[in-house]
Amino acid sequence: MGGAHRRSLGPAVAVALAVFTATSACSGAPTSESAPSADASTSSTGPSATPGSASPDPTQKATDAVLTSYDEFWAAQVNSQASPQKRPDPGLARYSIDKALADAQATIFLFRKNGIEMRGHPTHEVEVTSLTLSDPPSASITDCLDSTKWRPVYAATGKSARAPGQSSRVIVESTATVYDGRWVISTSIAHRDRSC
Known about the structure:
Structural class: alpha+beta
Shape: globular
Largest sheet: 6 strands, mixed
Mean pLDDT: 79
Strand content: 25-35%
Number of strands: 8
Number of domains: 1
CATH topology: Nuclear Transport Factor 2, Chain: A
Number of helices: 4
């Protein structure tokens, strides 16, 4: 895929389309670069590989770490939005910072205020579209979120709270960086006008 790394994950991650997009769609977050790049410059003074063993590819290692953090970020959102009256999943603060964390918290607050819960399970297909390992490290992520089987409902009645005419499959663009020694999501924007 020309340097891009794609991975399909199971129904552990997603986005609250009806409310999340309202709190994040206007952000000026950077968009994914058209051509994936990987700046994997490493020090030549690092440990050398022993004969017969290959050194781990730093680009692949970072890509795997980015995808894992993205997966954990959305898993924490799914857990938190399923029971917004409870304390948010601690993975939310561990795997996101800045605008991504603020938007996720705002969505949970709105759900709590309006008596909405997310039921069912979503699926998504995620791809790291660019990766830079220089200082500061950064990555761009594109995701096709499918919430066909993951829906917002009013907890009191079980009736749908999905915005009318909204697509159940949307593009989500996110950025990641390294914070406190781990990859975290710093922005995550759902484009409800871009179906996938």
